[in-house]
User: Fold this.
Amino acid sequence: MLEFVIAGLVLGGIYAIASAGLVITYTASGILNFAFGAMAFFIARFYYYLHTEHSWGILPAAIVAIGLAGPIMGIFLYAVLFRYLRFNSPLIKVVATVGLLVAIPALATIIFGSGAILQAPGLAPEPVHVYQFLGVPITLDDIIVYICVVATVVLGAGVLRFTEVGLKVRAMVDSPAMTDLSGTNPDLVSGGVWAVSVFFAGLTGVLAAPIIGLDPNKFTVLIAAAFAAVIAAKMRSLPIAVGVGLLMGIATSLAERYLPSNSQWSGEIIDAIPFIVIAVVLLYSLLRRGRMGDVERVGGALDRAITPQGESRLAGSTSGALESGSLGLISKYAGPFLLIVAAGALPLIVQGYWVGLTAAAFAYAVIFLSWTLVTGEGGMLWLCQITFAGVGAITTAELATTHGWPVLAAVAVGGVIAMLMGLVVGLLSIRLGDLYVALVTLTFGLLVENLVFTLPSFVNSGLGLTVNPPSFATSSRVLAYLFLGIFVVIALFILNFRRSTSGLAMNAVRWSDPGARTTGVSVVQMKVTVAALAALVAGIGGGLLAIQQSTIAPGTFDTFLGVVWLAVLVTIGIRSTAAAIIAGLSFVMLPALAQAYLPTWTGNIPPLLFGLGAISAAKYPDGALAEQSRRFRNQLLRLADRQKPPLVIDTLSGPALADDAVGTATGTAQSAVAVGKAP
Amino acid sequence: MLEAGVGTETSVLSARGITVRFGGLNALSDVDLDVAPRSIAGLVGPNGAGKTTMLAVLSGLLRPTQGRVWLRGEDVTDASAQARARGGIARTFQQPELFLGLTVREHLVLADRVHFAPRRLWSDMLDPRSLLPASSAENERVDGLLELLNLTRVAKAPVAALPLGVCRLVEVGRALAGQPHVILLDEPLSGLDMKSSENLLSVFQRVVAQTDRDVSLLMVEHDVAAVLALSNWIFVLDFGERIAADCPDVIRRDPAVRSAYLGDEESVEGEPEVPVAGEGGEVEP
Assistant:
């Protein structure tokens, strides 16, 4: 047994270092770095590039990759991204790091070349020396992991708690503005924090490479497992994070020892250990009826006072529920209407293969609408919509092909099953806070992907599952119009929702939890309902995608790809239904166009752009395209309102107007602020 | 006489034996409180006395370690914040908790519908009635409130654009739109200049005096002079314990209160003249 405990400490040690890096970064910056795995992969791949591909020695390669490239990457990312995120909502922080999660592996592939590397060296010279400890063989790589764990805990906790640097870091978390006024440069401290964070990521990557190889997806799974320790530590306790990380490694090793090796379930239970830890922690927290503390405001009163209001939104500002005025409505809905008409013309314009792609794009657009609902309206970041799409696809195939159901009825049932799953995940996670929703949905996606989508009956010996289209839609063109029709129905539902009392209530929930609750709106019910409806939409979209593709391999619904989908939508516009259709067309057509007309290496450029687009959520939370559309609309409204007097707010006696009118449909908070500042 | 409201039957809001512990710290210890119908009660005390914690307990945002809360004789201790809001407890916050994505009018409309048409929160998802104009009754109620609070002219403005004084009025409007029996006001005057404070205080008086409303106010406030001038009854907390509960005149002379909070005599002499607007500005329980 000792042998397995010691072996488990290696995997546990890697979990521990990763979770320590995540906790330290979160404690010092308020940002949970979802791109930690991507950063780890990038540095590990750079180390491999130097050490294996260019024959550098271990020490110089490690110093340059982990000691220099990692911190430089951290400082660079802080300078161009993280410093703008400080006072943003947890949601935008997560979206920006999710953008990095997509962009960094794409960048790595462009720089270092594609192809997963199954065996990569660690920090020990090869052949790796093996020692005996109490009769247990231990490699030098293992010993290096143990040393790094101890160093991480001692230095991490020691520096944060006992040194002046730690004091400055903690002061800066409380109030960057006050820290600045006290003579400490907050940018210097924060830049240092991010340098250390990416250093930890690089260390994790290089230590993990001998175990999991160099594959960005495996790194994401590894870090998702480390999230279990982070959740158990409530994001902040370094000793608990390290302890739980080590215990998970030991539990994995012992499970490998004692579970029957010939059972398929053994492997799945072993893979599920981190997710079991997450489920236990969440259930424990729910039983204690507590939130887990991710909603505390970063910064003090001074920081909030000097931060423009409205910075932290992800979704649009005004609900539009009671918006009136013909120009406002026309300018708001004319663009999307014309876009749908143009999209509708596409299947008539293009021919052959491209018609099928258009149908696929419309199916993706339906899936993307699930984010329009859950993130754009609900203000929650769900990272498992692709899982719901996969559930919809599998259910459609099983019911329609195996059990002979009408295929559209099978799609509907697939949506309902996804909705029920969304309901359960929502009930488990929403009460705990927005950050936990992102964490839980990511790990749920990975769990289903690894435990359910890999079942032999679904994999079907690699052949996947077949789905036949409805008898009236055997041609791709008819299929495209069927999907577009379904898209329009769901989009109209979302538009109605946005303008309705439900939309008002959801908007209220998104902006102020206590404000909504004390107005009589149930935050949990509202969020869970919207999340479940979004899962329904994703499930339906998945069923449509299955019909279009005829054959589906459940493994293709992998969580990381779902994150790329999200990045596509965030880039274009998370709140706009029209953006969903543009995102669907972009996601399908851009790679196909690149494949057809451009060199092969350009295939990684779209994911890189989508990742960078998602990062831009920090500046344009509505999405770059939606932002342009909004500016154009506001220009129109300003032209129309030019004759109207400005709004003057007399802070002494209350609001009043210079004359007898307030511009109708003032647009967004920003434009309203501008109006409010008018003399 | 208001202490007659100790019986839960005659109080709109009552609390008994409220105790809240945060780890080893007793934030509140065995606190009793009653708010009489159509009255203004003040809850005062030094910083850290437990006033905001008490409001959190009363509004349902915080569960007490011990003690019970009644709303119009009904035990609401185990009710959620939203259930209490629908039952008639509204509140405002020291840092206004407004919905930055909504306009002033939308705040009031939402609260109005939560009270008068709660099913619309769900049925409107599928019902396209939001495309139609709102009912005349709803418009009348909301417009009346906007008029009462002098918010008509910013009704369509997003609240993100508004100054603090107006934000406080919007919070009060949102609270009133839910037709509450009691509104809990958490430091409504903090950060306001004198004229905005006077404006808000006059609104409080008008609201309580309105015959078509049956609303009481419980106000946590550090402006002791204003609280003493406005309130019918005062509760004083210190270190989580209720050290006094009486009418303002008695509170002014209470040695324990003077020692713990009010200080020397001069500090409470200079009460501002609270503007009295509308009929029945003076509120008698």
Chain A has four domains: 2-259, 367-557, 559-623, 631-676. Residues 185 and 410 of chain A are 60 Å apart (CA to CA).
